[in-house]
Amino acid sequence: MTVSNALRANILTEALPYIQKYWNKIIVVKYGGNAMVNGRLKDAVMGDMVLLSLIGVKVVLIHGGGPEITEMMNRMGKKAVFMDGLRVTDRETMDIALMVLAGKINKNLVRIIENKGGKAVGLCGIDGGTIKAEQLDEKLGFVGQVTKVDTGLITDVLDKGYIPVISTIGCDSEGEIYNINADTAAAKIAGALKAESLILMTDTSGILMDKDDPSSTISKLTAGELQDLIKRGTVSEGMIPKAECCIDALNYGVKKVFIIDGRIPHSILIETLTDEGAGTMLVQK
Length: 285
Description:
Carbamate kinase; globular; single chain; about 45% helix
C-alpha cells in the first residue's frame, strides 16, 4: 500500500499526544507466544522496541522461551515434564534453561534490536543481583519465585539510552539459580520500576467474555472486575495465571496493564500510540 506524505504527516500528528504521554516513562513489555517464534512478528516487535526508544520511551523487554527450552531438551534426548503448567526442573534442565534463555534467545534479541538501529543490553536476573529468588516448590526442582527485585542495573542501562533485554533467571542468597515464570517476573519488575505500564503479549486478543469468541474482547477492566471474572469462570485455564499477574502488577504500583494480541504486527504501537488499542487494558479502579 502506498501512503502519501500528507497521510504520513497526519498519522504522526495524531500520535503526538501519546508520544508526549509516554515520553521518559517506563514501559515493561513481556515478550512471548507466537510473536516470539514467528520470524515476521519477531522482526516487527523488535522494530517497535526501537521506535519507542527513539521517541523517548524507556522500554524494558522481558522474554520467556519455554518452547525453545523444550526443543533443546528434545535434541539432547531429555523429556520435558510439567506439573500444574510449570516445568519440573532438575539440575540438567536448569543448565539447559540458562543456556537457552540467557544465551541463545537473549543475545539474538539484542542482535536484532542493534541491527534495526537501536541500542540494547542483554541481561539475566543474576546480573547485578537483579532478581533474588527462592525455590517455589521442592517437587518442581529449580523453579523459583521472586523475593526481591533490585532495579539499579536496569535503571543504569535505561539512563544510558539502552533497552534492557532481560531473561528471567534468578538467584538466591547462596548462589543457587532458578528459572522463573516470565509473566510473574515481569509483574514484579514492572512494579519495582513503578512502570507507567506493563504489556503482556499473548496468543489471544485479550480478556474474552466468551473464550470461544475472539470478537468478545473486553477493552477495559478494573482489578476487581477481573477477579470477579476469574471467580465466575469466565477467565479460565491458561489465562488465569496471566490475569493474576496483571492484578499483582497493579497491586505493586504499575499504573496500567495491557494484555495484547502478539499475533498482530505492531500491536504494541497500536496499543500505546493510538485510540484503537489491541487488547484489554487493566487498571486498579
